[in-house]
Amino acid sequence: MLEMRPVCENGGKDLPNDRAEAMIYTFECTLCRNCVEHTLENVCPNCGGGFQLRPTRPRGLLSKYPVETKPLVKPVDPKKLAELKQRPIAIPPRQR
Question: Would you give the DSSP letter of residue 4?
């Protein structure tokens, strides 16, 4: 089950369960759409993969399966990101 992390890992922007701009990758890296599109250019700063919209947990299940409340903020390391971007980002994420 997804942790549903509450903030953008890069900038700390609030990304509650119902926020449509939350983006995730396979290892649950969670960022806002602005960081994904403009800062990262759809390259995960941890693994080099691409992002997808994060699903929303149905309200009726939130009490039984609450979302994560502890923020995880770890701003992108520009040097590491530059190295990841050396890979051909024109290749679709599923083929990287």
Answer: -
The tens digit of pLDDT for each residue in 3-12 reads 999 999 999 9
- Of residues 22, 84, 75, the one with CA closest to residue 48: 84
Q: What's the pTM? A: 0.82
Amino acid at 14: D
Dihedrals φ, ψ of 47, to 5°?
A: -135, -10
- How far apart, in Å, are the Cα atoms of 54 and each of 4, 16, 26, 76, 79? 8, 11, 10, 20, 27
Q: Transcribe 5-60 into DSSP letters.
A: -SB-TTT--B--TT-TTEEE-TT--EEEHHIIIIISTT--TTTS---EEPP---GG
